[in-house]
Input
Amino acid sequence: MNPADERCMRMMREILELLKSSNQYEHVFHLIVDRLGRLFRCQTCAIILLDPRTEYLKVENSYGLSLTFRKSFRRKISTGVVGDLFWTGKPILIESVVDNPQGSEELRLEEPFGACACVQIAVNHRTLGYLHVDSKEPGALEQRDLSILQAFADFAGLAYHKWRLTEENMRLDRIDHETGLEKYVSFLERLNESVERARNFGERFAILIGDVDNFKDIAHTYGYDSSHQLLSEMAKMVRDMVRPVDAVGRFGYDEFIILRANSTLDEAIDFAKALGRSVAQAPFTEKQISSTVSVAVATFPENGRTVDDLVLTAKKALLEAQRSGRGSVFHYPHVWYSSDVALRDNNAS
Output
């Protein structure tokens, strides 16, 4: 092992020891950005997370950014390179700003850079944010650096997830009390059981992910209390529409995920459309707020034979539904696997 590799391993062990002994994710974040800043001699290193209440990105911790910039930083998830990173998890590498000026401008933080790399921070298929590293010098970041950055990003995700588990006591309480839906960790247990049962007995089932299309506008127009009440009422509507054999979990702040047992793709699509119509026709809260949902559908075994495949396929389908316009339902064709596409992309590169 060369000296550079040994140094990297020492830094990783240092972060891992802190992660094992502490529930304070801020300490882990600080150590990550500080050590990466030294390791890559970068201009900027930042952990950027999604605020689930506002759906804006925020700088959670950083190296090389001024306090003024950090406080003022507030960006939406675009449909460009950052949007693709969020939905697909594919790392971003710009070895020279000349090669990708548009992507470079979207990724730029406080100062222009010569090279940049960003990797996803995610836990249990849910994207929390991304890790950003840039350098003034073109060519300072290479393809081989991505695996190191991803390892540090995974440490950040685990630290944040560990803190959230502790704060919400998720292992002891299966219900999300804001919506009455199952917490995602509990829902994930059901989904794993469904995959195992489907493999053993040849069963079929579907998962659907729904997203409230205009939630940010509702929160901005009517305030937090009304937007929270809308989520609660919509969640009750979804619970009332599913069958006793189905399950509904909270996937994101304004997203829900449904496990529909013994369902074909066509049946799941019909249910998704019926759900969309019910939401569109219902007035929510005493203020009679109108809303719509975008819904994605994925089925076992056509769209995946593992939990990872099914959830990733549904997440990609949800992005397509949102791109199609409010109230849309999207599904991929029969025998369409998200991992197959990722594998083909990797082979092509």
The domain at 184-348 is CATH 3.30.70.270 (Alpha-Beta Plaits). Confidence is low (pLDDT under 50) at residues 341-349. Residues 145-168 form the longest helix (24 residues). The radius of gyration is 21 Å.
